[in-house]
Amino acid sequence: MADSMDVVFEALASPARRKILDIVKDRPGCSVKHVAGFFEVSRIAVMKHLQILELADLIVSEKDGRSRRLFFNCVPIQMIYDRWTSEYSALWASNLTKLKYRIESREKTHGRK
Question: Is the model's pLDDT at 5 over the cut of 60?
Answer without folding.
Answer: yes
